[in-house]
Amino acid sequence: MMAELNPLSSCRSGLQPYPPTTMFETKKLTKYFGGVCAVNALDLVVGEKEIIGLIGPNGAGKTTVFNLITGFIRPSGGSIVLNGENLVGKKPHTIAERGIARTFQIAKSFPQFTVIQNMAAAGHLFGGAGFWEGIVRTPRYRRKERNIQEHSMRTLSFVGLEAWKDAIAGTLPHAHQKLLGVAMALAAAPKLLLLDEPLEGMSAEEVDRALEIISAIRAQGIAVLLIEHNMRAVMRICDKIVVISFGEEIARGTPEEVKQNDEVIKAYLGAASYAE
Amino acid sequence: MSRKSVANLALVVVALLMPAAARGNEYYLHVYMMCAINTIAAVSLRSIAKTGQMSIGQAGFMAVGAYASSILATKMNLPVYWAMLMGGFASMLLAALIGFPLSRIRTVYFVTVTMFLGEIIRLVAFEWRSVTGGSTGLESIPPPAAFSMGILHVNFANRIYFCYLALFVLLFVILILYNIERSHAGTVLSAIGQEESLSASVGINVASYKVLILCVGCFFTGLAGSLYAHYMTVLNPDAFSIFTSLYVLIYVVVGGRAFAGPIVGAVILTLIPEIFAALKEYQPFVFVLILFLVVFLLPGGLTDLPRRIRESAGRTSAGEAG
To answer: How distant is the Cα of B178 from the closest Cα of chain A, in angstroms?
Structure first.
């Protein structure tokens, strides 16, 4: 079921040199909404093939960080750098082109399309099929269209949705909608994948499957930045965790370090009884 | 060949035979012309509206095509075929100019802006007397030049040839728009209409796709306008009032979501006031009534009717079996 999953590299940290080379970072990323500071001087560093958790209480500004990184809103200050290129001021579609894909907190799909049509639309960047060549249906265009189809099916079976390919996306069960969102982000062939609460509303088994998929994504050489409230899952899968509260970083480190951080326990985890 | 393409071919053959059958009856040929012109405008609007850009300024784009083409033909003596093509391009140029600002607004704001755009164009045609002739408009707009091919002598003084020219343009427009629809671009356009931010997040350049389809749609709309001008030979701003824009929109909504929707809608709604001549005065009322009936009873539009009938037939037979 998990196509192209390489068991060697799916374990945490893999066999790569540590610390891994930085591929993405934000420096002093700041966003004010009017007078309210939603994100304050946030430094994020994501290395090759790393899974970084971004956690914090509700309203901490996590989704705002994603919206800043993907260009949906413009930062008030700071920089966003992917492989040496500053992405501040670029449009969302350009940022997707540079290799950052995302999912949305409330699972989004093209609701009237079938699952496979959703994938075809999401494979837009991968296929590179142009507007005009589609009208005359040149052989080159048909080849591109076939490539998109194959790529879509590959990605669908990667997340285990191939059996649903002809279902109307708007009618999918919740967990499948979430997986479709991930598959669509992957269809854009990203280098860095931003997952906004991918496990929200999933059953225990579904969480396990989703975590397997996230590991497999890393094994494909894609770095992951993960917002998630399911602490057990975050602790299990992330290499490093950044904790923010009211837009400010309050802790960072490995899951063990974060778990024991007093500041985090006070601001976020609440009861000291959490740490098992 | 599939059953569907046989049926489509049969429809094209019928459309080809109709002007010949109505040969000599000027009135029938006139209705045929109006059906063709309205259908071109309606299929163009449907493609534009796929991205969520439901324009009610299409009469404005028709007016630009009509006036540009007529002025080029009468005042600059451009050959009419070229003038008509330039009419399409003039409309497209306007679409390209306003496309990017328009691509940033949505829903009711888009509707409002396009409505005023249409009215502004009509008022310009009304007030700019030295060029457009004001309220009296332009007169003796020439038809395309006659030509001969072997035994075929085409002279546009005869309405029947105009009908064939319009049909030719219509089939061309349908072919292009249908190919866009079933290509990857069609998927992308519909995706933009369903979820703009998701489209952008997977790397679709939302603004440029919106402008592209607006340009293509408005080119064809302008072409419909210039067909109208050279067919009528006279032109005045009244033909491009907000009602014309609204009618085009109603054709699309009444026809339904399928590709054939605006074609069915435009033909049927163009025929209704002609068949029931007594209703002609009340055309806006009749159209609004039909629009309401369709929206409430048949939200998928007229092209959804066969599916609905099949479904309810299936339900009753299932009920009998149970």
So the answer is: 8
Domains of chain A from N-terminus onward: 1-99+191-276 (3.40.50.300), 106-189 (no CATH)
Identify the H or E element spanning B50: none
**Which of A134, A127, A120, A140 minimizes the C-alpha distance to B179?**
A134
**Beta A223-227 vs A100-102: how paired, if at all?**
unpaired
Instruction: Record the pTM.
Output: 0.89
Average pLDDT of chain B to the nearest whole number: 92
**Single-letter amino acid code for the residue at A173:** P
The reply to whether residue A121 touches residue B188, judged by beta carbons under 8 angstroms, is: yes
pLDDT in tens, A66-125: 999 999 999 999 999 999 999 999 999 999 999 999 999 999 999 999 999 999 999 998
Comparing A25-39, A46-60, A122-136, B234-248, the range with the smallest average pLDDT is A122-136
- The Cα B287–Cα B269 span in angstroms is 8
**Domain-wise residue ranges, chain B:** 21-321
Could you say which of A120, A141, A187 has the minimum Cβ distance to residue B187? A120
* Interface residue B162 vs chain A (CB under 8 A): no
B299 touches chain A (CB under 8 A): no
* DSSP character string of B232-282: HS-B-GGGGSHHHHHHHHHHHHHH-SSTTHHHHHHHHHHHHHHHSGGGGGG
**B217 interfacial to chain A (CB closer than 8 Å):** no
CB contact at 8 A, A247 and A22: no
pLDDT 10s digits, B22-42: 888 899 999 999 999 999 999
Q: Which of the four pLDDT bands, split at 50, 70 and 90, describes residue B318?
A: low
Q: Which residue of B has its CA nearest to A190?
A: B202
Number of residues that make up chain B: 322
CA distances (Å), origin A4, targets A99, A156, A217, B127: 20, 12, 10, 68
- Which residue, among A131, A148, A149, A180, would best test binding to B if mutated, counting the most B CBs under 10 Å from its CB? A131
Task: Name the band, by pLDDT with cuts 50, 70 and 90, for residue A43.
Answer: very high
Residue A93 to residue B203, Cβ atoms within 8 A? yes
Query: What are the φ/ψ torsions at residue A241 (nearest 5 degrees)?
Result: -130, 135
Question: Which member of B179, B191, B195 has the closest CB to residue A137?
Answer: B179
Report CB contact under 8 Å: B201, A70. yes
* pLDDT at residue A12, as a whole number: 45
